[in-house]
Design a protein that fits this description.
5-stranded mixed beta sheet; alpha/beta; 6 helices
């Protein structure tokens, strides 16, 4: 059975990754309230079902994409149930073909491994290489559910605070598309 802890409203006592520490420091600095849980390692969207139930939230799907030259990067955030269609994504942004960025680039740029991609990864993007792109359907939800930068920590925050407060603080103004 997949483990999900009780809900907590404070940062962890110790951190598993530099990004995780940066996430909680930023949320504290910005006075953004959150609820979080610790879990077994969650890799797939299926693992998120029990997390969703505990936090009463719909986890987002966060994809790290790049162009063929690996010079342009996109953090695409959509609803968990939508299939990703590269062609539709590219058409919506008016860009050429993208694919999933290699795991090592995701780790170097966002500070996360596969399964832990999160909007909070832009805190590690000091070169402002990543364009944050939201599916408009994500913005219709009151709550935003995502990883805290690990594959064992998940949280729920107000969507409008992520988009308006956190991303402004992180100097990443998002683009919104319809998929």
């Amino acid at each position: 059975m997949f483990f999900v802890s009780d809900i907590m409203e404070k940062a962890p006592d110790s951190y598993k990754a530099p990004l995780q520490e940066m996430v909680y420091e930023a949320l504290t600095k910005l006075q953004i309230a959150f609820e979080r849980v610790n879990t077994d390692e969650a890799i797939s969207m299926e693992d998120c079902i029990e997390i969703n139930q505990k936090l009463n939230v719909k986890m987002v799907k966060t994809l790290f994409l790049c162009n063929s030259k690996k010079t342009e990067f996109y953090l695409f955030i959509t609803t968990a149930n939508k299939l990703f269609k590269s062609k539709d994504f590219c058409n919506a942004l008016g860009i050429s073909r993208v694919s999933f960025a290699p795991a090592e680039l995701m780790e170097n740029i966002l500070g996360v491994k596969i399964g832990a991609a999160t909007v909070f990864g832009v805190l590690m993007d000091k070169g402002n290489l990543v364009q944050v792109v939201f599916d408009k359907d994500v913005l219709l939800e009151e709550w935003y559910g995502c990883s805290d930068g690990t594959t064992t920590g998940y949280m729920k925050v107000k969507t409008k605070l992520v988009v308006n407060n956190f991303l402004t603080y992180a100097k990443h103004i998002p683009t919104v598309i319809e998929m």
